[in-house]
Each structure stands twice: as structure tokens, then as C-alpha cells.
Amino acid sequence: MQIWGRNGRADQTWTHTSSGQLTVTNNGMSDCLDANVQGTVPGTKVIIWPCNGQSNQQWQFDSDGTVTGVQSGLRLDVTGASTADGALSFRGPRSTACFAREPAPGPR
Questions:
Q1: pTM
Q2: In this structure, are residues 75 and 98 in contact, taking their beta carbons and an 8 Å threshold?
Q3: Which of 35, 39, 64, 88 sits in a 20 to 30 Å window from 49, CA-based?
Q4: Model pLDDT for residues 31-83, shown as the tens digit of each residue
Q5: Which region, left, alpha or beta, applies to residue 89 given φ > 0 means left and ψ of -120 to 50 means alpha?
């Protein structure tokens, strides 16, 4: 998954579900934020994948505004702490400077 500046498009609107999934709907199809191939080590790529209910698609919002994978305990982060459009996201250890620092939305 890549990060991009806000543009108001539906493909940038995420919903944190009551089951812990982060979903995005685009062209009428909903998909989930997913740790690629059930990865649980730092550096695992984060992708958008059809929702399947597995634990690698469950996320929690921490009190500091970061997002943590339930399965691995790793936080959502961006390569090189970049804020540039197109930067790649991955899962990193809790000690890294994470990008997800906006107020955490509740379930919608």
C-alpha cells in the first residue's frame, strides 16, 4: 500500500469495523488492510486485499494515534518515515516513528 495526500476520493476513506478490520470501498467493492502473506516480522508489506476475517486483517488504534496489527503487535509505518506521495507502508516494531498520528476514528 502507498500513502498519498488527501484528495477527498472514496478510496481514501477507511472504516474501522467492530471486528477490528480497516476497510476501504472503491467502485462498490470493499477490501481490507492486510499484512501480506500473514507476515508477522518487521518489514512485512501492508496491502489492500479482499476481506477474509483472518487475524492479519485486524488492527487496533493506540492511544497515541498509531495503528497496530492485532496478529503481530507491529505498528503501521512508512518506509524511511517518508511523507511523500507514493511511499510504501509496512509493519514495524513499536519503537519506530509511525505515520498514523491523527486522531483515531471510532467504528463507523
A1: 0.76
A2: yes
A3: 64
A4: 999 999 998 888 888 999 999 999 999 999 988 888 999 999 988 888 777 77
A5: beta
